[in-house]
Amino acid sequence: MASDILDVFNIKEEARVQPKKRARSENDFGSQSKKKKHAMSRELYNLIGSNLPPVAVEKGFKFKDKINSGKASPWVWAPFKNEARSDDLELHHWVKGPVAPSDEQRSYNFAKYNTSLDIPSFSKEEYDEKLKDMSEDWDFEETKFLFDLARDYDLRWAVIYDRYEFYNNKQRSLEDLKERLYSVSAKLLNSNPDGTRDVALIKGLESFDKKQELERKQYLDRLIHRAPTEIAEEESLVIEARKFELAAKKMLMERAQLLQLLDSPQSSASIEQYTTSSGLTQLYNSLMTVDKSKKRKPEVPVPPQLGPNAIPHTQQIQQAQQQHLMRQRQGKKSSLSQKLYGGKQEISQQQAQSEVWQLLQSKLTAEEMEVYGLRFHDEKLQPGVYIRSQKLSSFKPAVQAKVAEVLNELQISMKPTLPTANVCSKFDQLLQSIATLIDLKKQTDKLSGEVALIKSQKGIE
């Protein structure tokens, strides 16, 4: 390998730097065994040669090396006073580092969390002047007792309602206590002699409605005591509502795309740059690039269906096409039945040429052929024996489930009980009619949803 590299660079073998040889001593056996442990492979040595690595490797710290971090910090058992207490009690706690005499007068760290609500207070004269006419059911002593409880328990209404026991033994509900406290507080703040008024706080206190609070609690009580069936019904309604929202969004998006395609493009820039051949080539390349970037779905030929974004004229055309197809099917079925039952319609040329058909026609009447179950089929039949009910019309799984539901409501089985030819023919017509009605109902629901959406957007009731 090394000789090949030297040949590429036109370097002679003699120009290589050869390491100096020294005589092997007796102490070299131990060092040689140690070097072999960390020796590099022969291929790597042949590539590198006698060149040293460009980066010097230094010995770093080991994982368990002890780091001298200095002297340990002392802890002192220092006294302190909590400003939240009114008895000037002196307590002690551990403090890191030496404590200076000035630090002992420092405030306690957790005293700032001892906060209280600023609940307004009033005197007997203020009550008689401003608050006496608010309610005849409340007096000064009971109102003062309520404000003292609210101040002691920081407006924790559950505790206030539990501790509320006034000497007049009047039954007060929690809503009565809230209404009295909020109305009196709003009156006091509104008539503040200092002139400072918190408008947002006053509006919040005046907005309390006792009747609305009772209704809210009744609704919550009903919500908590719901039955499992009601919960499942609500969840299903929420899911259906989300489906309707997604369908409406999809319909609006498809409509916007359709309108964007139908609207003629408005030219806002100059077209002089596209009058030359180079400009047309550049325009063609840009359009091809945009066209390739769009992900196209594979075009599969499907029968035209009534989509949610179709315009009313298109819906009328599609409904007319569907009705025309239904009439053609019914006409084919009626003509086939008339041929089978020997009506006045003309018989096909192949059947007229058949000797068996002529013989039966001359010997048997239509009623006798119906009694004996004799029929002549125009279509090609499959070989072997089959059941008439197997030839009934089948639909997509979603439509089939709805057809089964309608038949269940009509108390009709999915398969005819006595599958004669006439019964199977009528039953197939029934299935076709049910499927057509389901499709029409689906389109009607879409149209009614679209009309309701447009009315809600335009504000029409």
From TrEMBL:
A Gene Ontology molecular function term of the record: transcription corepressor activity
InterPro entries, per database record: DAMP1_SANT-like, DMAP1, Swc4/Dmap1
A Gene Ontology term for the protein's cellular component: Swr1 complex
Example GO biological process: chromosome organization
Primary subcellular site in the record, as a coarse category: nucleus
Domain spans labelled DAMP1 SANT/Myb-like: 108-189
Subcellular location: Nucleus
UniProt KW keywords: Chromatin regulator, Nucleus, Transcription, Transcription regulation
Protein purpose: Component of the SWR1 complex which mediates the ATP-dependent exchange of histone H2A for the H2A variant HZT1 leading to transcriptional regulation of selected genes by chromatin remodeling. Component of the NuA4 histone acetyltransferase complex which is involved in transcriptional activation of selected genes principally by acetylation of nucleosomal histone H4 and H2A. The NuA4 complex is also involved in DNA repair.
Family recorded in the similarity comment: Belongs to the SWC4 family.
Protein name from the UniProt record: SWR1-complex protein 4
Organism field: Ogataea polymorpha
